[in-house]
């Protein structure tokens, strides 16, 4: 059992190009796990702010100056030689051309087709998280009608949306089965993935890609089903912790802003959202009263992206 003071704090960078490629570095000879690939970064000095450590390490290792970086996820991993806590930032703007100043190799890769190996063991969940798109679309057919909802989904996936949740709690099972099948067929034509809210059986019947657990269901399960993509709705720290313990693919945290469906509900606001997701090991989508224009704000506060219902079309 390790003591918290024994954890090595590390600032790690997901340096991202406009085409979605990100930079990996191969550890040089003489370091633990020499020859393994990892995200650039390094140890945080005592009392050093994380972002300062990130900028310092990238200047020393790669010769680049970080102009814009967003806090993202935090992963703790125990190696034979040390326990490390990796604070990941997504670096989206920098000055200079990355150059290996410490005898490491560099390679630009893509999350859905990483062509270098071996990767450090701590990075497998990070690569899966990077494969999640920035926008999570949620259906609203019972309010707008199934035809209009399908039109909205078509418009969203044609515009690049790659993750859709079928969430229709008031729909009859028969109608939901038909609707879910139509959404799956439509989304798959554009390379988008579909999650079904709460119903594992329907998820499998409809050929969907994953399951999304409502918060009440989340708190009553002890392990994940054999489904690759699992999301969860959360509203507080306890529910986020449960999602982490179960190893969910991602979480959705709400409501951030006032919503049309629940105008009187107490909202988190961006400051509380940032506090709750800080240090979280899962990518977290912000939900509640949000539009596409709020995406950058979500990134600035540690979110992976935004989830939208009424604004998807």
Write up what this structure looks like:
With about 325 residues, this protein is an alpha/beta fold. The chain has two domains: about 5-125, Nucleoside Triphosphate Pyrophosphohydrolase (Alpha-Beta Complex), CATH 3.90.79.10; about 135-310, TIM Barrel, CATH 3.20.20.70. It is about 30% helix and about 25% strand. It has helices spanning about 50-60, 125-130, 140-145, 145-160, 175-190, 200-205, 215-220, 235-245, 270-275, 295-300; strands at about 10-15, 20-25, 35-40, 40-45, 65-80, 85-95, 105-110, 135-140, 165, 195, 210-215, 230-235, 250-255, 285, 305-310. Strands 8-9-10-11-12-13-14-15 form an eight-stranded parallel beta barrel. A hairpin with a 4-residue loop joins strand 5 (about 65-80) and strand 6 (about 85-95). Helix 4 (about 145-160) runs parallel beside helix 5 (about 175-190). The mean pLDDT is about 95. Belongs to the Nudix hydrolase family. Pfam families: NUDIX, TMP-TENI. Keywords: DNA damage, DNA repair, DNA replication, Hydrolase, Magnesium, Metal-binding, Mutator protein.
Number of domains: 2
Poorly predicted sequence stretches spanning 5 or more consecutive residues: none
Helix-strand pattern: EEEEHEEEHEHHEHEHEHEHEHEHE
Give the number of helices: 10
Produce the secondary structure layout.
Blueprint: E1 8-15, E2 22-26, E3 37-38, E4 41-43, H1 50-62, E5 65-78, E6 83-95, E7 105-109, H2 124-130, E8 135-138, H3 141-144, H4 146-158, E9 163-166, H5 173-189, E10 193-197, H6 200-205, E11 210-213, H7 215-218, E12 229-234, H8 237-246, E13 250-253, H9 269-277, E14 284-287, H10 295-300, E15 305-308
Parallel strand pairs: 1-6, 8-9, 8-15, 9-10, 10-11, 11-12, 12-13, 13-14, 14-15
Antiparallel strand pairs: 1-4, 2-3, 2-7, 5-6
Pfam families: NUDIX, TMP-TENI
Enzyme class: hydrolase
Family: Belongs to the Nudix hydrolase family.
